[in-house]
Amino acid sequence: MHNHMRMYVASICCNIANCHWLEPANWLYSHLLDGDLASNHLSWQWVAGANSNKKYFANQENINTFFNSNQKGTFLDVRYDAFEDFKTPEVLKELALFSVGFKLPASNNPELDPNKTTLVYNYYNIDPYWRKDEDVQRIFLLEPSFFQAHPITQKALDFAIALTDNIPGIEIFVGEFSDLGLNAKQIIYKEHPTNDHYQGVEEPREWLSTVSGYFPSFFGFWKKCKKQLEY
User: Fold this and answer.
1) How far apart are CA 112 and CA 116, in angstroms?
2) pTM (2 d.p.)
3) pLDDT for 176-229, tens place per residue?
4) For the chain, which residues make up each domain, given as ranges?
5) φ and ψ at 142, to 5 degrees?
6) What's the pLDDT at 228?
7) Which sign, positive or negative, has the C-alpha torsion 133, 134, 139, 141?
8) Residues facing residue 172 across a β-bridge
9) pLDDT tens sequence across 46-74
10) Is the dihedral of CA 16, 22, 27, 29 positive or negative?
11) How many CB atoms lie within 10 A of CB 56?
């Protein structure tokens, strides 16, 4: 249901209102409690037909089917062939720039032991089982530069911070990675494209399968993964 809703919203914004996909994609990402930049933004590009000539459309009948609703008379209550020459409804012609307000916690940062092994968690890694029984220093790093580049709502930020309650002994550090002031040899973190600037010992993320290599489409990749998951 979640994915259908994103596709419907993206279709209306990009293919009915003729808005570029990036601005509304950023807006939706900012509200998702399970937000993932790659999944969200690539889905918006796919719906908008950014990498092909095929755009995704959903009419009212389709939406009613998946939401168990019975709406009639909306601007989407048309046959699919009507989308070939569809005029933008007046209600969708006014565009607004994306903006969101959030506030990082007060930077009352803890004193860190430079001689102790430190696990660095972040918005994309709040794994409560990561090296669970080890005597290490655990830091939840909130980098202002990350959230300036990829803003989220206060609700999404508060949700992420609340998840750290599941990690005994973890402390919040508001600042850039370089502000930690730790020896890179003592730092361990999990690989992610948004933390390429980290320094230390990088550990791989957990993946659904061992499938690797280039695939021209997600479905080609998923077929390979599905075989492993089924067995």
Assistant:
1) 8
2) 0.88
3) 999 999 999 999 999 999 999 999 999 999 888 888 888 887 788 888 888 888
4) 2-92, 100-231
5) -115, 100
6) 84
7) negative
8) 140
9) 999 998 889 999 999 999 999 999 999 99
10) positive
11) 15
Beta-sheet strands, E only, within the chain:
118-121, 137-142, 171-174, 187-190, 201-203
Token output for 67: 């939401």
Q: Among the residues of 150-202, which ranges form H helices? A: 154-163
Question: In this structure, what DSSP letter does residue 206 have?
Answer: P
76 vs 96: which has the higher pLDDT: 76
At CA 136, angle to CA 135 and CA 140, rounded to 5?
A: 140
What residues pair up with 118 in beta bridges, in sequence order?
137, 187
What distance in Å separates the CA atoms of residue 63 and residue 6, rounded to the nearest whole number?
12
Split at pLDDT 50, 70, 90, the class of 2 is low
> Span 2-92: which CATH code?
1.10.579.10
Question: What CA–CA distance (Å, rounded) separates 222 from 216?
Answer: 11
Separation between Cα atoms, residue 81 and residue 99, nearest integer Å: 35
Q: Is the dihedral of CA 14, 16, 19, 25 positive or negative?
A: negative
